[in-house]
Amino acid sequence: MKECPRPGGDDRAEASAVEEQLVLRQGEVLRALGHPARLRIIQHLRDGEHCVCEFAPLLGLRQPNISQHLAILRAANLVNTRRDGLRIMYSLADPAILQIVDAAAEVIQRQAAALVVLCDCRKQPSAPS
C-alpha cells in the first residue's frame, strides 16, 4: 500500500534543514568568538580598520599566533581583509557582531552582580531568634 504524502511535508523538511544549517552556522560564529585574543581583535576593530601589525602590541602575542586567530575570524566571515601596499588591513565584516560581544558582556556583568549580592547575603550575620 502506497503512503499518501502529507501536505506541506516537504516544506517542513526544508525548513528543518534550513534551521539546522542556521544552528550550525551560529555555532561556528560563537566558536570563532570563543577565545580572549579573538574577542580583543573584534573589540579593537570596533573603531574601524586596522593593520595586522597593530595587533601584536595589543595582544602581547607573536605574529604567527595572531595570524591563526585572524584566520579563524576570516573563516567565520567575521572580518574582511584588504591589502594596502605591503600591509594587510582588517575590518569587521558586519558591525552587528559587536551586538553579540556586547550582549555577552552584559550577561557576565549581571551574573557578577548577582554573585556579589549572594556573597554579601552569606556574610551578614543572622538575626538572633
Main traits of this protein?
about 130 residues, three-stranded antiparallel beta sheet, Arc Repressor Mutant, subunit A, 3 strands, mainly alpha
Helix content: 55-70%
Fourth-level CATH superfamily of the domain at 21-94: Winged helix-like DNA-binding domain superfamily/Winged helix DNA-binding domain
Averaged pLDDT, please?
Answer: 88
Low-confidence region ranges: none
CATH class of the domain at 21-94: Mainly Alpha
C-alpha Rg (nearest Å): 23 Å
Q: Helices and strands, in N-to-C order?
A: HHEHHEEH
Question: What share of residues are in beta strands?
Answer: 5-15%
Quickly give the structural class.
Answer: mainly alpha
List the quaternary state of the chains.
single chain
**How many DSSP-defined strands?**
3
| Distance between the first and last residues' Cα | 77 Å
